[in-house]
Design brief:
By secondary structure, this protein is an alpha+beta fold. It has one domain (19-108). The chain contains two helices and five strands. A three-stranded antiparallel beta sheet has the order 1-2-3, with helices on one face. Strands 4-5 form a two-stranded parallel ribbon. Helix 1 (57-74) runs parallel beside helix 2. The longest helix has 18 residues, at 57-74.
């Protein structure tokens, strides 16, 4: 960065939308998370959520499940016909419990080896 008294102080351009978080490689990087609810066979976007840092993945999953159940009710489907695929950070028992409580079926890969 150039250092000159006439220049404004340096700042990150993404401070408003990112916070320091852990990306899995290096610590101290600024990150942003994104959760997407998508109907796969038509590629229809149901909803998307973004959050600063590593985010509130449980809150985002709750909002996504609300959007999915609203979508199902609109088309007069029961929650049992839905199959939700979880990727990434959602492979823990908390997320699996939320999906089972919502009454939808799920496919996921567990994040830890305690859940097989």
């Amino acid at each position: 960065m150039p250092c000159d008294p006439t220049l404004p102080p340096p700042h990150r351009r993404l401070d408003a939308v990112c916070t320091p978080g852990y990306t899995g490689r290096k610590r101290g990087e600024v990150v942003r998370t994104r959760t997407v609810a998508l109907q796969m066979h038509t590629r229809q976007l149901i909803d998307t959520y973004a959050d600063r840092g590593n985010g509130d993945y449980q809150g985002e999953l709750t909002r996504a499940l609300q959007a999915i159940t609203t979508y199902l009710k609109f088309f007069a489907f029961t929650p049992e016909v839905a199959l939700v695929r979880l990727d990434g950070q959602y492979g823990d028992t908390v997320a699996i419990t939320q999906l089972i409580g919502a009454g939808v079926h799920l496919v996921t890969r567990a994040r830890g080896y305690r859940v097989l």
